[in-house]
Design goal:
mainly alpha, 18 helices, single chain, 490 residues, 0% strand
């Protein structure tokens, strides 16, 4: 096992949030407030970090979402017919993916903490790339079930691992925007997936294989090739990044020391894992994603089918998935910008979740194909920004490296239980209106608004309580986010 990389040791100081922006981040907003004898410009330095870190990570997640959701495109190209699926067997295969994902989510993040990102993240990518390629050679239903399960197992560690990884490079209030950029790859995967599936489907008969098999084979091989390159593209942590100068290394250490626990040398202990499991807020973050994962994954897995059932051909449906995802990608980035500038998160999540709910109302109430298609655009445009903001929440609000890594994994595990439910809702006999699936998605989006509202109240009251205690003479103490000087972002 690789040696765990150590970080410079130093105390973490948490600055109280200014009263006029109590909902904003507690971190320093400018590099001018920290020791910076080298004259490094913070904005230029952040752009350098973005150029070095985000492209490779975003590409990995794009491929991850492409390899998990291309089964929806393959369905339109003959997957169900060739494997002789009947009843809800296709839905069972989708469910098994999330069973594997949920079971191995937390163990994968534990492995990341005990190894290094440069080893673990590319290895995960290589593993799921091989599994995704094997999907193209599946000959029967049992093989389909097995491959979907192990695809979930091998993909389970990527997203929470990357969220934890970014928290070791960026200050708290900088993470939401970067996580949203990273997550926008999911929407791009949907857009590219439709285009690729449309083109690849014309390979039917090449090498004696059907078009749906080539979708899995070619996209899986692409993932394997990228995974090989990612061993050289992904670095570990600032202490050993070769593209940082000594002055830049000192600067990033100083800015993170004033903001979070990223510079502390924290060894792995099960006690720190239990801190996340015992924190009610970590469960609420998980419930926040749970109420989004059902609409997110049902839409990504069934959007081609939903559009086809509106009266379009399979080829038209593949291409018509592109506009909803393109709009979702744009809105995800735009909302992230507003969240970073305002320091507010909950109001934006509630607004975009409501937008998604309006989309499902149109799908449920109007039979015109054009109106229903517009509903898919609103649903997609509302779901993806909300998911991005919800997923970034524990990365901003949970302190203690192991506790944060565990909280990130908990959130995805709890959340994906919603996806397990969702994969059983869009039955072949329910088209073209899909009242059951659309109704569940609408209900879950409404629940998300409620859960986010509860988190808003809980976090704001806890901030107010800590400010009151400090004013009455209380002093900072406790570990990580239990410190009286720590302020939660909401």
């Amino acid at each position: 096992m690789a040696e765990v990389e150590k970080h410079p040791v130093g105390p973490t100081v948490y600055s109280p949030t200014a009263p006029e922006k109590s909902a904003g981040p507690s971190s320093l907003s400018s590099g001018d407030d920290i020791e910076n004898p080298t004259g490094i410009k913070e904005k230029a330095f952040l752009r350098k970090l973005d150029r070095k870190l985000l492209p490779a990570l975003t590409l990995l997640y794009l491929l991850s979402f492409l390899d998990r959701s291309n089964v929806g495109n393959a369905r339109l190209s003959g997957l169900v017919t060739d494997l002789h699926m009947t009843g809800n067997q296709y839905l069972t295969g989708l469910t098994l993916y999330f069973v594997g994902y949920v079971l191995f989510e937390i163990p994968c993040n534990v492995v990341l903490k005990r190894t290094t990102p440069r080893i673990w993240l590319p290895t995960l990518t290589l593993a799921w790339g091989v599994v995704a390629t094997l999907m193209g050679f599946t000959q029967n239903l049992s093989g389909f079930f097995a491959v979907r399960f192990f695809l979930g197992v091998t993909e389970s560690g990527l997203f929470p691992g990357v969220v934890f990884y970014l928290s070791m490079w960026y200050k708290r209030h900088e993470r939401s925007y970067r996580i949203a950029l990273f997550f926008s790859a999911a929407a791009l995967a949907g857009a590219f997936g439709g285009i690729l599936a449309y083109g690849i489907s014309f390979m039917k008969g090449v090498g004696g294989l059907d078009g749906w098999r080539w979708i899995f084979i070619l996209e899986g091989i692409l993932t394997v090739l990228v995974s090989m390159a990612s061993y050289f593209l992904i670095c570990n942590y600032p202490a050993t990044a070769k593209w940082l100068s000594d002055s830049e290394r000192s600067y990033i250490h100083a800015r993170l020391k004033e903001d979070s626990d990223a510079t502390q040398d924290e060894s792995f202990t099960w006690q720190n894992v239990s801190k996340a499991l015992k924190d009610p807020k970590c469960w609420l973050y998980g419930l926040g994603f749970h109420t989004m994962s059902l609409p997110l994954y049902t839409l990504s897995l069934f959007l081609p089918t939903i559009i086809k059932e509106l009266g379009y051909t399979a080829a038209q449906a593949q291409l018509m998935t592109v506009p909803p995802y393109a709009i979702a990608c744009t809105l995800t980035i735009a909302v992230a910008v507003f969240v970073q500038r305002t320091g507010r998160r909950a109001p934006f999540i509630m607004a975009t979740s409501s937008l998604g709910a309006i989309g499902y109302i149109l799908l449920l109430t109007d039979t015109k194909a054009g109106v229903s298609y517009f509903g898919t655009i609103l649903a997609t445009g509302g779901i993806y920004p909300s998911v991005a903001m919800v997923l970034a929440w524990p990365a901003n609000n949970v302190s203690g490296q192991t506790k944060r890594a565990t909280a990130n994994a908990m959130q995805i595990s709890i959340g994906n239980l919603g996806a397990v439910i969702g994969t059983q809702l869009y039955r072949a006999t329910d088209g073209p209106r899909f009242f059951l699936g659309h109704g569940f998605a609408l209900g879950y989006l409404c629940l998300n608004v409620l859960v986010v509202g509860v988190l808003w109240v809980v976090l704001s009251r806890e901030n107010a309580r800590r400010e009151r205690v400090v004013r009455e003479g209380g002093v900072g103490g406790g570990d990580g986010d239990e410190d009286l000087l720590w302020r939660f972002e909401f």
